[in-house]
Amino acid sequence: MSRTIQIAEEEAEVLRSVLEEYISELRMEVANTDSMDFREELKRKEAVLKAMVKQLQ
Asked: Which end of the chain is more exposed for a tag (fewer CB within 10 A), N or C?
């Protein structure tokens, strides 16, 4: 299901910034994770978040 939301430019900037910070922390978690299944789940989450950041630019 695809959903569209409208947010103000300032809100988009803040959201993008928060997502980028979280992605950075997520990369550290991926690097420190021993479980391959959990690592793949984190990588999928990272990909979704990166796509969201791209849409906010």
From this structure: N
